Structures are given as C-alpha cells and as structure tokens.
Backbone:
C-alpha cells in the first residue's frame, strides 16, 4: 500500500494522458489516465476520485480507485498533452 501511495504522490500533470468515461460503470465519476515507465515498461495508471456519502470513514471522505496496467503499445510523445 505504501508503494501505491508513493507512486500516486509522484504523479505529475506531465504524466497525464487523458480523461475517460468508465463504460462499465457510467454513473461513476470519470477516470484520469496517467502514464509512467517502470523498469523500461510503459504502465497506465487510472485514478477515479469519488465523494463518499458516509463522511467520517477513517477521517476522510474521499476514496481513490487505482489501477495499474502494462501498456499494450509503447507510449508516444504525443500521448502526453502537457509533457514539456
């Protein structure tokens, strides 16, 4: 869990790729897609932030839903609209 928190903390706007609608759960909030390289492999990181109705769970009212997936194709420079 600490590794996931660390990777989330190190994400930058320059790692941002796109915002997508979750077609499996269209009522959920949009997902933000980021890309990073780990051990010479491109990895997609998808994040969804949702406001919980039950305030007070562990002192926080937000939950991050994360998924990390190896990319099927190598990232291209133009995949990252904010990369300098």
Residues:
């Amino acid at each position: 869990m600490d590794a996931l928190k660390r990777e989330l903390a190190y994400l930058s706007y320059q790692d941002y790729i796109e915002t997508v609608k979750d077609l499996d759960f269209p009522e959920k909030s949009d997902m933000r897609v980021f890309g990073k390289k780990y051990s010479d492999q491109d990895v997609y990181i998808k994040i969804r932030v949702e406001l919980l109705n039950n305030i007070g769970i562990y002192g926080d009212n937000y939950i991050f839903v994360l998924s990390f997936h190896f990319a099927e194709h190598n990232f291209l420079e133009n995949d990252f609209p904010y990369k300098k």
